[in-house]
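dumping the sequnces here before i forget
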Amino acid sequence: MTAAGRIPAERLSWYEATARQRLGALVDPGTFVEIIGPEERETSPHLGIFDLPAQFDDGMIVGRAAIGGRAILIAAQEGRFMGGAFGEVHGAKLTGLLRAARMSRRDVVVLFDTGGVRLQEANAGELAIAEIIRALVGARSVGAQVIGLIGGRAGCYGGGGVIAGCCSTLIASEHGRIGVSGPDVIETNMGVEEFDARDRALIWRTMGGKHRYLIGGADLFVDDRPAAFREATLAALGRGGSLGLDTLVAEQARLERRLARFSDETDAIEVWAALGIGNAEAIPELATREFLLAAAGHRESADEAR
Amino acid sequence: MERMAYRLTAPHPAGGTRRQAIVGVVASGNLEVLVERALPPDVCSVEVATSVRGFGPVWEAVVADFVARRAAGGLRIAINDSGARPDTVTLRLAQAVRLICAEEP
Amino acid sequence: MKPAEILRSLFPGGCDLTADGGLMAGHGPLPGAGRIHVLGVAEGTSLGVEEALWLARRVLEIGQARDATPILLMVDSGSQRMSRRDELLGLNEYLAHLAKALIIAELAGHRSVGLLYGHSAAGAFIATGLASSALVALPGATPTVMDLPSMARVTKLSIDFLREKAATTPIFAPGLDNLAQAGAVLEIWDPDKPLDLQLTSCLGRLSAVDERDRLGQERGGRPKAAAIAARVAKSSL
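..and the predicted 3d for all of it:
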């Protein structure tokens, strides 16, 4: 196993941490066994064309571990390397992990931190995402849980957002953002009137962890601390259930209901008010405990319908 | 990209028993350092891949200084660099070597 | 080929299709083998929350039927719809829902053939053509992950530079040939031969296993993906 710096978990910010630090703080100590570790030097065969430096693990760490004594498979994206984007090797590691999850019915924990497809390897990245989705659904169809954790710099955008939508449970912190088109993409293509990518408050209202939790786009909302993510992961691992037609029929109803409820709202604050949350404008300022209290009884849940 | 490789005599062998360690991230102004316990105890090798050309002499000096001061004998060190400053390089090298020498639990 | 031509060649005896905006649904006969459901995104329509729901509902209806009627998914789409509203409403879940529906319907016995005859890009491509059991294309189709001008803007590299590099590798530039080489497209159909025969032949050769990475390796588009995935899978067991 490759030793990587361990900062005491209490002091670590999930957002600030590296993928290796997050993974180390999440799993039971000493249980992580990396597969195709950095010493194997399986780097991208394509970055050299663009004179870009490679990373030994291509920004994706995969392996076996235990959480709360339960054997799992785990993957973590390094959001600071190429924006955590999916390249050929990066994606293939996660594809292989999920295929194994299907064969062994082992639960998978995915630490997302991605802007989507790595443009320098666009075709490979897009295909990797498609293969990951297929393998993920295959694993869930036989009862394996696939739990997504979102709270890093890159958020979870593009094809990564679609993969996240295929997970059995999503855990997000306030820092986490989930979407398909990122703020810059919308602004560049549709104009600043449609989306001002410099308006951070708008970004977080529209795509951030709190909003996703309130409309049922994320299942658990946690602090920016590994201990909080770990606790939520343990809860998610206990859930069980497999993905089948009945789940999707329930999801169809859930997504139709959401559309019917909020179709005409133009801002998240209107959505939150429509959910019945008093003083919706204050939501972004609330600390976790107050936020969860405000959300209780009002938020949309996706239980059994994801 | 520029690639350099150095093989130096290391005055002190690295302690500990861990087989490998890694620190850092390949992001702008940063680097990753992978160390493996793979060589005879009086030798240290350093391979560098960097996206910033033309700093060969600086790398040579930083590496030579590091190996002279630190117990790095027996280590194969591999670096992927994205324009880190020399002091960041020295820091990461120190972190990596400290890690591989740390006691195993 | 235009959609009407394609449909005539697929269903010489006619077919039953209704259009709803840029979307279509219906069915056509399969010679000697019952019928095939037809779903489609046409005219470069972008895939937003409404469109994804519309298609997914029909896929789920098909999936719940206790037969093995396959699905033909005809694709000439835009990308995902890029709007504040779609993101606010959680477009990622809607696209994921459609992809899941296609895959779970396949597991329930309703295999799908994606027929790319026009454009498709990014998130829309992932949720339609790339979520089918197999993807075939007609010459002239224009699948993209991202167009070169946008790529140039995002990467801050010049278009000329990207074009120069694109000549040396199929790994990033848009185009049917590049995506076929990467393994996305099972086969490119011959527009001068009857499409109904090519469809029946394709349906007879569908694999339950995702072969795209292996194809990508064979064709030289993705040298490492298949081997890496296989190694990780083996070591994870």
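The mean pLDDT of chain B is 96.
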